[in-house]
Amino acid sequence: MNSIRRTPLSISTAALTLALGTLVLAAPAHAGEDPADGRGASTDQKGGGDDKGIYAAASVQYSGAVTKSGGAGNVASADVNWTPPPCWYAPYMGAKDFKKKMSGNIEKWQNDPAITGTAGSAIGEMQRHYEDDYGWTDTPGYKDYNVDKDGEGMFWAGVENPNEPDYLKRTACSELPFWVDNGEAPPPRYEQAITPEMLAALAYQHMELPGTKVTLAPEAITKVNLPTWAWLDKAVFDEVQATAAINVPGFNIQATTTAKPKSLTLSPGTADATTIPANGGCPIVDGKIGEPYAKGKAGETPPCGIIYRRSSGGETLPLKAALTWEISWTGTGQAGAIGMPDGTIEATQNITVEEIQSVNR
Asked: Is the torsion defined by CA of 33, 37, 39, 40 positive or negative?
């Protein structure tokens, strides 16, 4: 890294960051642009550059059980306070490519009559920053865009998570692109620099798990005070994995998020019902949740099910089934699996409850 030149700024650091953030990072990279189709296929999600500015273009490669569209998957975190990263810093370009891109933008902005005042001054400061070793506290300058170190590192820049609804959080990674030597960690001040743990969270966010359709007996029309048996097909209990990785020269990290079914929670859609077990939670026992109904078990209590106590009056009731998955991750630099908040998938099935005095099954 070049030495820091402690030259006082002719405009304030805050003004420079604001002006340059508007110009340089006007359109931070979206983490999902043109993913491939197919569950289990590889999905590349990357940023790039446009006529508004430059931003990180390192590809986040997704594979395994991920969404086809690049959007958020179907898993909701059981911890309402847990969220994936809204933005991050990632490798962008080598020195020569960065010089070509940045110097071209600077020239264009300098010739734009609409860019004046503070923004115009900021362009001059930025040019000095990358060309003349001009830096300030904690932000070193560069000589000729570090081209003498081309191939020995990369400039990093901000990436925004398109699935983050909060605009301010999504666009918070607005620092100027900065240099990182191959094999070295980004400077500590960039707390949002991409890490394996952040990749694990992104894999979690994009994970697509099997749907939660509960098999019922009776299937759609049940009777008052008659136990309705509920169970899940054993195929649902397969372990599911999603992987996120960044692989560029001098920087390679990855994380794999693993989900395992944990329990099923039934919500009958009415207060006039009794769940079995009483808390509505059906745990995994011997690799299965619930037990399929078989002829002759009409008088038995199912290990997982519902007893409706009142007719639905010709209407349907929304039976909700939420499957909880235990989620963990492993990745670069980690010796073993690390726990993450449980995930849930919820599905609703319509149930009709009828009155009857006696039932033969």
From this structure: negative
What is each CA distance from 238 to 74, 209, 210, 259, 345, in whole angstroms?
Answer: 17, 10, 9, 9, 15
Residue-wise pLDDT tens digits, 330-351: 999 988 899 999 999 888 889 9
For 25, what's the count of Cα atoms within 13 Å in the CB-facing half-sphere? Answer: 30
One-character DSSP codes across 175-192: PPPEEEETTPPPPTT-TT
* Residue 262 CB contacts under 8 Å (≥ 6 apart), including other chains: 283, 284, 324, 325, 326, 342
pLDDT in tens, 56-66: 456 788 999 88
d(Cα 299, Cα 227) in Å, to the nearest integer?
8
Torsion angles phi and psi, residue 178, rounded to 5: -130, 155
Q: Which amino acid is at 173?
A: C
d(CA 222, CA 274): 14
**What's the rounded Cα separation, in Å, for the pair 128 and 180?**
19
* Mean pLDDT, range 228-251, rounded to an integer: 85
Three-class SS of residue 228? Answer: strand
Q: Where are the alpha helices (DSSP H) in the chain?
A: 13-24, 95-110, 117-131, 167-170, 196-206
Quick: pLDDT tens for 97-148. Answer: 999 999 999 999 999 998 888 888 889 999 999 999 999 888 899 999 999 9
Is the pTM above the cut of 0.70? yes
- Strands (DSSP E) contained in the chain are 29-30, 43-45, 49-50, 53-54, 60-64, 76-77, 87-93, 153-160, 178-181, 215-217, 221-223, 227-231, 240-248, 251-267, 273-276, 281-283, 305-308, 317-331, 338-339, 343-354
